[in-house]
Amino acid sequence: VCGHEIDEFAQVIEKLEKQNNVDMYELNISCPNVDNGGMSFGTDPKIAASVLAHVRPLTKRPLIAKLTPNVTDITEIARSVEAAGADGISLINTVLGMAIDAHRFKPILKRKFGGLSGPAIKPIALRMVHEVSQAVEVPIIGLGGVSSGIDVVEFMLAGASMVAVGTANFKNPLATQTALQELKEFCSLHGINDVAQLIGALKEA
């Protein structure tokens, strides 16, 4: 669920509430690819909380807040959305970046800036998942550069209860299935009977 204004989030949820096949909502308060709203909702703790507080009374279904990494302190935002009623936190969204066409002396993107995804942002995502896992009680969905079963393991060790595969699916439509099989093989190799044993099991260096 996304919107250019807070009321648009509410309008979308009100319409979806009439559908029986919707299990939960992910509120994208972190997208850098729109002119109004988008990422700005997730860079201010008060505004982020206001989006959650505005839509929370509209549904009993779980609400997941998808956060932007383009902030100084991700834990501050995470605590604010948790306090406002988020049932879980999804992070991270894309990192704000830029691409330039040197031969034309112009930005490649019309808006100049856009979201960078894929393997390059994985270390940032892992760090933020770990930080947020220490700051909130609600479950975390980890994402950002996930393309293998080992990536999934790393995110779970950092504190994620669930892990999403995004950009890798564009390169390989079977990326999710492959990652799942690799995860099973990892658990078998290490004698892990329940994948939940990996959640937050990171040891000190």
In short:
Helix content is 36%, strand content 14%.
What does this structure look like?
It is a single chain. With 205 residues, the protein is of the alpha/beta class. Helices cover 36% and strands 14% of the residues. The strands form three sheets. A five-stranded parallel β-sheet has the order 1-2-3-8-9. Strands 4-7 form a two-stranded antiparallel sheet. Helix 2 packs parallel to helix 3 (74-83). The longest helix has 15 residues, at 175-189. The model has no long low-confidence stretch (mean pLDDT 93).
Q: H/E element string?
A: HEHEHEEEEEHEHEHH
**Uncertain parts:** none
Strand order of the largest sheet: 1-2-3-8-9
Mean pLDDT over all positions: 93
Beta-strand proportion = 5-15%
How much helix, percentage-wise, in residues? 25-40%
Structural class: alpha/beta
Q: How does the major sheet shape up?
A: 5 strands, parallel
Tell me the number of helical segments per DSSP (H or I, 4 or more residues long). Answer: 7
Computed over alpha carbons, the radius of gyration is 18 Å
